[in-house]
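Dear support,

I submitted the protein below through the web form. The confirmation email said the job was done, but the results page showed an empty box. After a refresh the structure appeared. I'm attaching both so you can tell me whether what I see now is the final result or a partial one.
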Amino acid sequence: DMAWDMQRALELALFYTYGSDSVSTLLNRTGEFREHGQKRYDDTRLLIGHFLEAGWDSEVGAQALDRINRTHAHYRIPNDDYLFVLWTFIEFPLRWSRVYARRPMTAHEREAGFLFWTEIGRRMGLRDIPPTRAAFDAFIEGYKQRHFKPCAASAQVAQDTLRVGQAWLPAPLRGLVPWVVYSLFDDDELFLNAVGARRPPRWFAALVRGSLRTYGWLRRGTRLGAYPLRLADTPNRTYPGNRYRIEQLQPVHLQRAEGAAVNSSDAGTPAGRCPHAWR
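What the results page shows now:
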């Protein structure tokens, strides 16, 4: 019902995770956003989109979730970082729907969203998931106090991701992308400091937020664009025509490591599990 809004909200959710020095340090170490930013964006969008659209127990949804779990297994990721990222998926759709969507979520939808994402967390092996939104919010406040601090890795990954969006636009407009994105975080000084961002001018931030609210208001009674908006019908820069396999949706450095292991095996060299040099 609000596919466009959900996509925008989850984009902001993922961007917000860069405020964590722990999350950003790992992302920056892999270099995926720096070297393969568009693929990293599309892979994430597609994997999450599949189990959102089809459900975690559908064939494609289960494959997508399994691909995520097998990718994460290559890294040492603290449980608290997992919980923080999971919280952003719960929180940001709520924030977006209250202000910018064509309608706010109902109480039933808000509760369903919480239950959906916490079940995803359990299927990813997360421990100690807070049982209520209030408990989760309290946990996150403590997490941010520990991890939201100025960090070179946070600033780097944020800049790398902004360059992905800038590549979508004509050259004269690319300089506005950071202002547009940070206009949606201009009330969160802790986050802006963590990623080394400057608050955009107030008039510009007001223009961005006002434009999004207007767009949401127009969509209350008017259908703008395709409806329903399905994953297979959305543009795909990395995989033209949406031709891809779930197995392709993983970081390039892991694909290369797996390819090297296969080649080694084909050559008669014993090949066990992929080495963990990227941890």
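Response: this is the final, complete result; the empty box was a page-load delay. The first helix runs from residue 3 to 16.
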